[in-house]
Design a protein that fits this description.
By secondary structure, the protein is an alpha/beta fold. Helix content is 38%, strand content 20%. The chain has one domain: Aldolase class I (TIM Barrel), CATH 3.20.20. Helix 1 packs parallel to helix 2, helix 1 runs parallel beside helix 8 and helix 7 runs parallel beside helix 8. Pathway: Amino-acid biosynthesis; L-tryptophan biosynthesis; L-tryptophan from chorismate: step 3/5.
């Protein structure tokens, strides 16, 4: 089954919307530079509202180890997503406490895929150079380098996620900007359409 992560969750309302639509994971962005920044308190309330079945992923960018661990605990996250140029030791330290999604850019995929997939508790995620910008990746060009079991983000939405799944067969897909009416506010119709499109593409790409 292809897992579906809806990122940029900023309210209890949108957390429940995504969960009810069938999302497997929600993303909560704690990077101060993001226009979808959410507080640990609001993320905690949203996390508790959906229960333990839905994964709650805290998204961080170049933030200190203590800040990441404190925020993830306070917000009741079940996993951590790490962006930025980070050392192997740092990622290992985070992975000692939480499952980690280690984000890489397309230009770094060939060189870094083996580095991060070799760490216990770490899963690779491919994202655009400017996460949350809504610009899709060149999936065909990435096909030779995309490792099995990796997650895919970067400009995904209801209109293109089926093509992305067909090209790369990711373990999970992650969307944000194309599922919004404005940054941080989800479009209910787009969220439901995205999940349903993934489920349809999954049955076609991975027939039973």
């Amino acid at each position: 089954m292809i897992r579906v992560k809806i990122c940029g969750t900023t309210s209890v309302h949108d957390a429940l919307l995504s969960a009810e639509a069938g999302a497997d994971a929600l993303g909560f962005i704690f990077a101060p530079v993001s226009k979808r920044l959410v507080s640990a308190q609001v993320a905690r309330e949203a996390s508790l509202s959906v229960g333990p079945v839905v994964a709650r992923v805290g998204v961080f960018l170049n933030q200190g180890l203590d800040e990441v661990l404190r925020t993830a605990e306070a917000a009741r996250m079940s996993a951590v997503q790490l962006h930025g140029p980070l050392s192997r030791l740092y990622v290992q330290q985070v992975a000692a406490y939480y499952p980690v999604l280690r984000v890489v850019r397309p230009a770094d995929l060939a060189a870094e895929a083996g580095v991060w997939t070799g760490i216990s508790g770490v899963t690779l995620m491919l994202d655009a150079p400017e996460p949350g910008g809504g610009v899709p990746l060149d999936w065909e060009a990435l096909r030779p380098h995309f490792p099995p079991g990796a997650w895919l983000a970067g400009g995904l939405g209801p209109a293109n996620v089926a093509r992305a799944i067909q090209a790369l067969r990711p373990a999970a897909v992650d969307a944000v900007s194309r599922l919004e009416v404005s940054p941080g506010r989800k479009d209910p119709d787009a969220v439901r359409a995205f999940v349903q499109t993934v489920r349809t593409a999954e049955s076609e790409s991975y027939p039973q």
